[in-house]
Design brief:
This protein is of the alpha+beta class. It folds into two domains: about 200 residues, DNA ligase/mRNA capping enzyme (D-amino Acid Aminotransferase, Chain A, domain 1, 2-Layer Sandwich), CATH 3.30.470; about 30 residues, no CATH class. Helix content is about 30%, strand content about 25%.
Length: about 250
């Protein structure tokens, strides 16, 4: 029995190449996007989707709070804000980047980046997401700008998303396992305004690049902590290394 409502499965654009057999696809995506006045594109990051709410810190399963050691730092944060979350019925959803997955991020400044806030039966507007995140000193995922789908037209809309995903992550990106620069994982497009929880799949869609996972083993089989930019800079200066050398040494240190 669930004691907390999961983050809904995010549907893919039908032209998203990174789908798997159990993914859901929004085949009517343009009908949905063209009804929205303002859509914001944000970066999809390669971490563990995590929720902070009045009950605890939840990862993939919402039957019980997570016991994963890579979420321990979030439990400390949660203990500081849980009274506020309980009082306001607020749930904060974000990407937990503490443990390295398939993409390395050399320039992250935090291990948790917020991508959504739910209050009762509403997903809050993006401006409210940023405001609430700032109250708790939490960053939000990077933005790529606001567009008006109906004014752009379908073809231009698609081309804009495809142009975005050709680039590295905002925090730079290295493919884990081969240690070579790579493009970002993908883009999430959402209604900039608030919407009802029942309308989630009509207001938020994602694009994921093909084959973003290139490691043989699941990331959880050998946990590596992702170093923060400040740590890399300090190590780089101390050891007189290049930034990339310092980053990779920190990621792979025993």
């Amino acid at each position: 029995m669930l004691i907390s409502r999961k983050y809904p499965r995010t549907h893919h654009y039908k032209w998203s190449p990174g789908t798997t057999s159990d993914d859901r696809i929004n085949h009517e995506w343009w009908g949905d996007m063209s009804k929205i006045e303002n859509v914001i594109h944000t970066e999809k990051m390669d971490g563990e989707g995590t929720c902070l709410n009045s009950v605890g810190v939840f990862a993939r399963s919402h039957a019980t709070p997570t016991k994963h050691p890579w979420a321990d730092y979030l439990k400390v944060k949660h203990s500081m804000i849980v009274d506020d979350l309980r009082r306001t019925d607020t749930e904060i959803f974000g990407e937990n980047l503490y443990a390295v997955h398939s993409i390395l991020y050399p320039k992250i400044e935090n291990h948790f980046y917020v991508f959504g806030v739910r209050v009762l039966d509403k997903w809050l507007s993006w401006e409210e997401v940023k405001f609430i995140s700032s109250i708790y000193d939490l960053p939000t995922v990077p933005e790529f700008g606001v567009v008006k789908p109906k004014e752009l037209g379908e073809e231009t809309f698609v081309n804009q998303v495809l142009d975005i995903v050709k680039n590295p992550s905002t925090f730079d990106s290295i493919q884990n396992g081969i240690n070579k620069p790579c493009t970002m994982e993908g883009v999430v497009s959402r209604n900039i305004e608030e919407y009802h929880v029942d309308d989630f799949s009509n207001n938020l869609i994602k694009y994921v690049r093909k084959d973003h996972v290139k490691t043989d083993k699941h990331w959880s089989s050998s946990i590596k902590r992702a170093p923060l930019q400040s740590e890399v800079l300090s190590f780089m200066r101390d050891k007189q290394l290049s930034y990339d050398e310092a980053f990779l040494l920190l990621v792979n240190k025993k």
